Automatic annotation (TrEMBL):
It comes from the Bacteria. Its cofactor is pyridoxal 5'-phosphate. Keywords: Aminotransferase, Pyridoxal phosphate, Transferase. GO terms for cellular component: cytosol. PROSITE patterns: AA_TRANSFER_CLASS_3. Belongs to the class-III pyridoxal-phosphate-dependent aminotransferase family. This is Aspartate aminotransferase family protein. Pfam families: Aminotran_3 (PF00202). GO terms for molecular function: pyridoxal phosphate binding; transaminase activity.
Length: 458
């Protein structure tokens, strides 16, 4: 561990030179940044020697946990053989081809072709370009509108922020990309209007049909959604929602795009969230869990309908990145998929550790006075913090951040999304580790409760 003086020097240098993403730099610098020094399994350690359970798997990505030697070795070996080569000019290399084939095998339906990028945002940008190009090739250049949901997260490039439904992002980067419309999210608990979850799911899905009719069915290229909205606070849709969305898309010939950046690679107990929720996307973006976050890589899996059209038309698809299909990242992703498959990790998320995690959360925290509602499936969960459980009254103060800080103090990395606490631990977490995570969260909730109980106007 570096000594205290070196620590301070680093903090100081970070404050002077490093602009952090999604960060209030002024607030950060006055408080001082936390340095994460190393990690193993589900744990990370900070430079002060505190051990924390990483209840977020980094940023929803370290699905296999930290320190997996096979992933490290895959990168090391590939670095020695071929550290870089591009895939632009009629060339390929073994890891990217093998990875494309592996993704085609694990994705459902006819998602048989794969386009590579380096981040979720780039994958989203790729999807937008591809579907708009598709409709031009189909002789319907007027079909260019995209429909997404409020509070959705689709990355932070201009296209991602425009497509996403995060008002606080959009207000900083306008004018936004034109041709994008939003409908409301399927957040049943947050909208207490007395109807059943199933009915609510249908109602919210039908807002898609209303929107399509409003803007003109012939003008709509695609609808996009995360199977479970992640950064929006882990909004788990009612079971009725996605099948109805799919029915409406098919009825109006609107392409269905799934943003699987968080749900993909086992998070919900299937390879992809769209499988868990029973719909078949025409095109799908993935990133995060694709390499367990060990190296940046993302991909777009493209259904035959779109890919065959692109290919049959001839001519170049004028899009790509210097690092599309980077060999080292591809080698790591391939090994990541092999481990998920050979160790039957996703099966365990569906049948063992996922249900255990969901049950423990509900058993231990379900009746907590701050906890209004717990939703989740597999190893993803969101917990609504409320002032009044009976009448579903939320706090009008930022209790999420308060609780998040109490989690950190208890040795748990959790995340606050407004008035929701979200969790997404590594898929390899054990039962004993789940127990420990839930205990730490309960301590944090107790202390948060003690702090807000005395608050006025909360
Ligand atoms: C994180 C995320 C993205 C953006 O991925 P980056 O790699 O951060 O660009 C896009 N969509 C969803 C659903 C995400 O969670």
């Amino acid at each position: 561990m570096p000594n205290a003086e070196a620590q301070l020097a680093m903090r100081d240098a970070d404050a002077r030179h490093h602009l952090h993403p999604f960060t209030d730099t002024q607030a950060l610098n006055s408080k001082g940044v936390r340095t994460i020094s190393h990690a193993q399994g589900i744990y990370v350690w900070d430079s002060e020697g505190n051990q924390l359970i990483d209840g977020m798997a980094g940023l929803w990505c370290v699905n296999l946990g930290y320190g997996r030697k096979e992933l490290i070795d895959a990168a090391h070996q590939q670095m020695q053989v071929l550290p870089y080569y591009n895939t632009f000019f009629q060339s390929t290399h073994a890891p990217v081809t093998a990875l494309a084939q592996a993704i085609a095998e694990i994705t459902p339906g006819d998602l048989n072709r794969v386009f590579f990028a380096n981040s979720g945002s780039e994958a989203i940008d790729t999807v937008i370009r591809m579907v708009r190009h598709y409709w031009t090739l189909k002789g319907k250049p007027y079909r260019k509108l995209l429909i997404a949901r409020e509070n959705a997260y689709h990355g932070s490039t201009l296209a991602g922020a425009s497509l996403g439904g995060m008002a606080h992002m959009q207000s900083q980067c306008g004018p936004l990309l034109p041709g994008i419309h939003h409908i409301r999210q399927p957040y049943w608990y947050g909208d207490p209007n007395g109807i059943s979850e199933d009915e609510f799911g249908l109602q919210r899905a039908r807002e898609l049909e209303e929107k399509i009719l409003e803007v003109g069915p012939d003008n709509v290229a695609a609808f996009i959604g995360e199977p479970i909205q992640g950064a929006g606070g882990v909004i788990v849709p009612p079971r009725t929602y996605w099948p109805e969305i799919q029915r409406i898309c098919r009825k109006y010939d609107v392409l269905l795009m799934a943003d699987e950046v968080i749900c993909g690679f086992g998070r919900t107990g299937q390879w992809f969230g769209s499988q868990t929720y029973g719909f078949q996307p025409d095109i799908m973006s993935m990133a995060k869990g694709l390499s367990s976050g060990y190296l940046p890589i993302s991909a777009v899996a493209v259904g035959d309908r779109i890919a065959d059209t692109l290919i049959a038309a001839g001519g170049e698809f004028t899009h790509g990145f210097t690092y599309s299909g980077h060999p080292v990242a591809a080698a790591v992703a391939l090994e990541n998929i092999r481990i998920l498959r050979d160790e039957r990790i996703i099966d365990a998320v569906a049948k063992d550790i996922g249900p255990y995690f969901q049950n423990r959360l509900r058993e231990v925290l379900g009746e907590h006075p701050l906890c209004g509602h717990i939703e989740g499936i597999g190893l993803i969960a969101g917990l609504a913090l409320v002032k009044d459980r009976q009448s579903r009254i939320f706090f009008d103060k930022d209790i999420g951040t308060l609780c998040r800080d109490e989690c950190t103090a208890s040795g748990l990395v959790a995340r606050a999304c407004g008035n929701r606490i979200v969790l997404s631990p590594p898929l390899v977490i054990s039962r004993a580790e789940v127990d420990e995570l839930v205990n730490r969260l309960r301590e944090a909730l107790d202390r948060t409760y003690a702090r807000v109980a005395g608050m006025t106007g909360a």
